[in-house]
Design brief:
The chain has about 150 residues and is of the alpha+beta class. It has helices at about 30-40, 50-55, 65-85; strands at about 5, 10-15, 20-30, 85-95, 105-120, 125-135, 140-150. The strands form 2 sheets. It has a 5-stranded antiparallel sheet with strand order 3-5-6-7-4, covered by helices on one side. A two-stranded antiparallel ribbon has the order 1-2.
Length: about 150
């Protein structure tokens, strides 16, 4: 049995993800969405609500809150994973490196970094590395995540 397969009680199940595989998408956070999301999660920082205040800041306009950028990133990952197989998230880590400005086009890229058989759960632990990058190629958010993937239903 290779590392890309795991033995279940009566079958060998190949992992639906391969190390090096990438998933990409684009997103832009508009001012109304930034305000709405920040309100929803209780983030009252004026950089997410008050355009006059934000214009006077080092950013020059509203910025998305970290909860919003990280939610979009992990939501995109969950969508990719659950289109292929059952999954449970295990671990998430984010590093906020630059502000994400209102109306700034962003590119999200997730890469499969590791696939580890987990026979006790008849599945795999899949590790992902992700980035949210602006149009200048500057990384705004870096991330890592681990998910347990398995055949069938949760």
């Amino acid at each position: 049995m290779s590392e890309s397969e795991v033995a279940t009680s009566d079958v060998v199940w190949p992992c639906p993800f391969a190390v090096g595989e990438t998933f990409e998408s684009d997103v832009t956070f508009d001012a109304a969405g930034i305000r709405s999301f920040a309100t929803l999660v209780g983030d009252t920082n004026p950089l997410h609500h008050d355009e006059a205040f934000a214009r006077q800041s080092r950013f020059g306009r509203l910025i998305a809150c970290g909860a919003q950028t990280s939610s979009i990133m992990i939501g995109r990952t969950a969508n990719i994973v659950t289109q292929r197989t059952a999954s449970l998230g295990l671990d998430l880590y984010y590093r906020f490196r630059r502000a994400v400005l209102a109306d700034e086009p962003m590119h999200i890229r997730w890469t499969v970094a590791s696939v580890t058989p987990k026979p006790s759960h008849k599945g795999y632990i899949v590790g992902f590395e992700g980035e949210m990058v602006n149009s200048a190629g500057e990384v705004a958010v870096s991330a890592s995540a681990k998910s347990l993937v398995f055949e069938g239903h949760i």
